[in-house]
Amino acid sequence: MRVAKTALSEEALYQLEQIGQVDIVIGIPSYNNAATIRYVIETAAQGAAGHFPHLRAVVVNSDGGSTDGTRESALHATLPPGVERIVTVYQGLPGKGSALRAIFEAARRLNARLCVVLDSDLRSITPQWIERLGWPIVSGEYDYVTPYYVRDKYDGTITNNIVYPMTRMLYGVDVRQPIGGDFAVGACLLDTYLQQDVWESDVARYGIDIWMTTTAINTEARICQAYLGAKIHNAKDPAAALGPMFRQVVGTMFGMMAYYEERWKSVRSVQSAPIYGTAEAVIPEPVPVNLETMIKRLHQGHKEWKSVWEQLLSPHNWQALAAILSREVSIFRFEAAHWADMVLDYAVAYHRGVLDRGQMMDSMVPLYYGRTASMVVESQAMDLATFEREVVQAQAEIFEQLKPQLIMRWETAVTSR
Predict the structure, then answer these.
(1) For the domain 10-276, what is the CATH superfamily, name and number?
(2) Where are the domains of the chain?
(3) Full-prediction pTM beyond 0.90?
(4) Residues 23/112, Cβ–Cβ less than 8 Å
(5) How far is it, in rounded angstroms, from Cα 397 to Cα 391?
(6) How far apart are CA 62 and CA 71, in angstroms?
């Protein structure tokens, strides 16, 4: 399949030509977000006009063919003078990555020096988010700005359980929200992204965020984090809707390990990306979780994937999993140390191509549900600060401690191929 030359429609290309040149593009990917997108657009536009009054801005809504009136809501948003808008349906594979490709192409065609991207289901965005995300790039100090926000304990379970600790361990940069969804990119890094031949892969779907962050880290982009307060959005129960996202995000992350192998194997320490903005005391909206359903998914996975797990997991991890599966809900635990070690087994197996990679990712999802269930059990009585320290950060440190093991297994796998 040939990659489309552009993710922009002819109508969007015409509109871009009419606009000419701007300083700021605010990109909002969407799919059936009619209930929230107008608020996001209006708040973001106010932020651009209020915090960057001397810079010309355009809002680009890159939609995936919504059927609930999302584009109509975007067109009815009230914009301050000087802020323009484009509402378009992107071209290419259906997915968030294709939506962002259209936004990035629009930003480069408009010669923008700043591209801010925001989730379309946000309910906690304020005009200050545009300043927090945008100023580090407008000032010339940074190329890539990731969000740093307060989330409920059970919001962002893919981030907390695998993407954050793996990114930190592999590449030595502590970026708390590598796939946060609200971020900013400078012009040079946009060029780097658009030049890559990735737009027919999972990067065109949910793999886009981890691909962007990993690429930024490994191309020497200057990275900081922007403190945004609480993130309140249409969060999903991990047991209900996160399987496809997990497969695409983690598959992309594992695939990039081969591309940047020499770099991550040489990293021996971790440094935190600077945080721009002052933290405030905020309480995020609780995210519902169904503990029994997640544990049930783990047991269903055992029935479906037992033979695959036996192939992919180290003998000691297979034994540990047997013990985990024997535990009742009331005493359920899937320890972080076992989880981290199993993630490394999967990373190495993915690299070796032991089985079909899609099948491998499918078989990993029930294990993720099991670890997430354990995280819920461990943290039920914890406040956010304790959860962050004793669960998320403690788990990330376990991943770091296992890095020599990862390198040894990786190199053994290469030798045995």
Answers:
(1) Spore Coat Polysaccharide Biosynthesis Protein SpsA; Chain A (3.90.550.10)
(2) 10-276, 291-416
(3) yes
(4) yes
(5) 10
(6) 9
